[in-house]
Amino acid sequence: MSISVSSQLAPARPADLPAMDKLLQHPQLTPLTAEYGITLITQQLRLLMDELRTRALAGKLTQSDIATDSVIAGLTTRLREVTSSRLKAVINLTGTVLHTNLGRALLPDSAIQAVMKVLTQPTNLEFDLASGRRGDRDSLVEALICELTGAEAATVVNNNAAAVLLMLSALAPQREVVVSRGELVEIGGSFRIPDIMSSAGCTLKEVGTTNRTHYADYERALGEHTAMLMKVHCSNYAVVGFTKTTEIADLVTLGRQHQLPVTVDLGSGTLVDLAQWGLPHEPTVRETLATGVDLVTFSGDKLLGGPQAGFIVGRKALIEVIKKHPLKRALRTGKLTMAALEAVLSLYRSPELLPERLTTLQLLTRAQSDIQAQAEQLQPALQSALGPDYRVSCEPMLSQIGSGAMPVDSLPSYGLVIHYCGSEKAGRHIMQLESRLRQQNEPVIGRIHKNAVYLDCRCLTAVQAQRLQTLWSSDGL
Ligand SMILES: *Cc1c(COP(=O)(O)O)cnc(C)c1O
C-alpha cells in the first residue's frame, strides 16, 4: 500500500501518536530489547513520545514523523546516544605531549598488560605471600623506587597534590613551613601551595621576595614553631632576570643545624637524565635526594610516563610517620594504578631502552623528520576535505612537553597549519573549523594560533593517521 506524499506531510495531532504499549510490542523492538533492556527502552521511548507530543501541539509534526518506522528509528538513535561513552579517545594534535586535560602520560604496553591482569583476577595487592598475612600495597613498588632513586623508603598515593598534602599533614600539623615567595606556585586546576598548606593545617611562612630569596631570609624565619623547610620546583613558570634562589644544599645545611626536615616538591620529577636524549635537563629525583634533602614528592603521570600517582620518597623515619597518618589510607592508590606503576618503573631498570619502550619518551624524542613525513602524507587528504576556502600547509612548529615540565623549552616539531582564504573574515571560520575537528566522531584536538588552526603531528600515531586519512579522503569535514 502506498501512502500519498500529501498525506505523509499532513500535520499530526497528539491524538494521532502511536500508543506506547503497541510500540513496545513491536517485533522490531526485540533486538533493541536484547541490547539495551526494557527499562532503558521504556524510559527513552517515553521521553521521545513527550518530545513528539510537544512538537504536535506546536503544529510541527507530520504524519510521516509518527509512522512506526520513524519512531523506532528515533528511539534507536536516542538509545545509541545515551549509551555512548562520555569518555572518548581523542587525537592529541595540540603539540603538548603531557596534556593534563587530555589525561597526561599514555601507558606503555607492559603497563596495559599488567592492568588487564589485575582487572580480571585476584592479586596479592595487600597480601604477603611469604607469611600468609596482610601485606602493605606500597611494598609492591617500594624497593624498586628506592633502587631507582637512592631513597631509603617510599610511599605512593593518588597524585602529587595528595603526596604534598599528606606529607604536610603528617609532619607539620599546626606548625610553620618555610617556603620562598618565589615558589608559591599554582598548578593549573587549583593546586596552590598556600591552599594545600592551610588544608593540611600548617602555617605558611613566606620568605624573601618573588624574584630573590637569600639564605639569610630562611635563617631569619626559623623559630620555635617551624616544622619544615620546603622548596617547590617552579614547574609551570620561570622567574628570569634579577633573581636569586637559595641552593638546596644550603637549605639542607640550615635544616641540619636546626634539626628540621628539608623537603622538595619536584612536581614532574624524572628518574633519568633527559639530556642524554637531547631533551632539556630536568633535575632527577636521585640528584635531588643526593643533595641531602629529607623528602622529595613528585607525580607519576608527568615525565615519569606512568599512571596518575604521587610519590613521597626519602628518609625512612619520616616515611614511617607518613604511612601511619590516617590520610594515607584516604589517599591510597588503587590496584590498577599499582599494576601500571610497577610495570612502568620496571622499564627504568633498562634506561637505554626507554625511548623505545616508554610511550612518553617515545613521543618526546620523535625525530622532526619523522613527524614531517607524517604531516606531508596527511596534507592532501585534509586539503581536499576542506576545499578551496582553506589552505593547508606543512610547517615546522614547536611542541611543548607539558604538565609544567620545562615551561620555557620546546621541541622542534612539524604539523599542518590551516588558513582560511575565502572571501569572509577569517576569525569565525577558523574558530568553527577548530570546533568541527573537535566534534568529529573521533575528535581531533588542535589549537588556534595567529588566526590559523595548528595541528602538531608529534603525538599522532600511525594508526590514527591512517584513520584520519581515510575519513578526510571520503567524508570530508
Ligand atoms: C604537577 C605538580 C603538582 C601536582 O601534581 P599532580 O600529580 O597533578 O597532583 C604539585 N606540585 C608541582 C610543583 C607540580 O608541578
TrEMBL record:
Origin species, per record, is Oceanimonas baumannii
Residues where N6-(pyridoxal phosphate)lysine is found: 302
Family (UniProt): Belongs to the SelA family.
Q: Which domain of life is it from?
A: Bacteria
Q: Name one GO cellular component term.
A: cytoplasm
| Annotated protein name in UniProt | L-seryl-tRNA(Sec) selenium transferase
- Domain L-seryl-tRNA selenium transferase N-terminal: residue ranges: 16-53
**HAMAP family referenced in this protein's UniProt entry, alphabetically:** SelA
Q: Which reaction does it catalyse?
A: L-seryl-tRNA(Sec) + selenophosphate + H(+) = L-selenocysteinyl-tRNA(Sec) + phosphate
Any one GO biological process: selenocysteine incorporation
Q: In the UniProt record, what gene is named as encoding this protein?
A: selA
